Structure prediction request, 111 residues.
Amino acid sequence: MDCIFCKIIDGSIPSKKVYEDDMMLAFHDIEPAAPVHVVMVPKAHIESADALNEENVKYVAHIFSKAGEIAKSLGLKNGYRIVNNCGPDGGQTVFHIHFHLMGGKQLGTMV
Ligand code: 5GP
Ligand code: ZN
Prediction:
């Protein structure tokens, strides 16, 4: 399958990993949009938030259950933002669901 994030998960594309377990991987974004910018991905090829269902949503729950721990390990003591882009109009460019974890400065208001 021609998926960048599946290749990062299987190690055929290198990444700067910050957290890994049997269900997820978190690594530094190659083009950071904030002083700290990590991408959290499930170890299951789910295309986007639009492809979530009762069975696979456990991966999203797991990612959120670890996000605070990951943020802490990155030194984000004063908060952070988690973003999911869904589909072309949502700005999604890699079609393997992922959550951006960003912080390290006051990020301002987006919505
Ligand atoms: P999206 O725009 O789909 O929400 O986010 C995709 C993110 O993946 C972007 O922030 C982009 O910089 C990042 N990205 C794309 N390709 C790579 C890569 O090969 N390595 C890493 N570390 N990040 C990538
Ligand atoms: Zn994938």
About this structure: Helices lie at 4-10, 57-73. The chain has one domain: 4-103. Strands lie at 17-20, 24-28, 36-42, 81-83, 99-103. The mean pLDDT is 97.
